[in-house]
From TrEMBL:
This is Peptidoglycan-associated lipoprotein. Residues 32-67 are annotated as: Disordered. GO terms for biological process: cell division. It comes from Roseisolibacter agri. CDD domains: OmpA_C-like. It is found in: Cell outer membrane. Keywords: Cell outer membrane, Lipoprotein, Membrane, Palmitate, Signal.
Length: 208
């Protein structure tokens, strides 16, 4: 083979080898693709954080609802107990110069009866009062008869007489001071005071 031809062949071989090496190098570069993996981890952390935040909000909402429900229940109970106390304290009224119980007075006492029955430790004082007409001695005796009439009605329906104290103030403690029937009618009364056992009141039906 002529020398010139051999030289051309050698150069062609070298060029072909270089091209092959370059092509091989280019084919190996895509191997670095797995790098995006940290993005997946970041996304999962965000999802976990969002889930925990939602769980915390849900827990706070449940706690708030439970507190609100308990507060409403306590408010209802307080209302029932306060109504029972008002019933216990409600006075009864009498006709002029009389100690007999009127129908309206019996209705007031009927309302007191289940509360007194449900609270065996409850003790009360019944105070008899009169209007200003008549002597002091007569009015003290009349007030005593009025308080006794109320006590007798309660004990006749099963309330232990040892739980009931009676006292008379006659005309000494008027609820109204005008000299007119509208005031006298308010002063002819028996008043009630809880003297023991009223701190924790049981309402008929089980509420306390």
């Amino acid at each position: 083979m002529p020398i010139a031809r051999r030289a051309q062949f050698a150069r062609a071989t070298v060029l072909f080898t270089i091209a092959g090496l370059t092509l091989a190098a280019c084919r190996k570069k895509p191997a670095a693709a797995p790098a995006p993996a940290p993005t997946t981890r970041v996304n999962q952390d965000s999802i976990d954080a969002a889930r925990r935040a939602q769980e915390e909000r849900d827990r706070a909402a449940r706690d708030a609802a439970a507190r609100d429900s308990a507060a409403r229940a306590q408010a209802r109970l307080d209302s029932i107990v306060n109504a029972a106390r008002a019933t216990l304290n409600a006075p009864v009224y009498f006709d002029y110069d009389a100690a007999d119980l009127r129908d309206d007075a019996r209705g007031v006492l009927e309302a007191k009866l289940p509360i007194l029955t449900a609270n065996s430790g409850l003790r009360i004082r019944i105070a008899g009062h009169t209007d200003s007409r008549g002597s002091d001695e007569y009015n003290l005796a009349l007030g005593q008869r009025r308080a006794s009439a109320v006590k007798d009605w309660l004990t006749g329906r099963g309330i232990d007489g040892g739980r009931i104290e009676i006292v008379s103030f006659g005309e000494e403690r008027p609820g109204c001071t005008e000299e007119a029937e509208s005031c006298w009618s308010q002063n002819r009364r028996a008043e009630f005071e809880v003297t023991a056992g009223g701190e924790r009141l049981t309402v008929p039906g089980g509420a306390q």
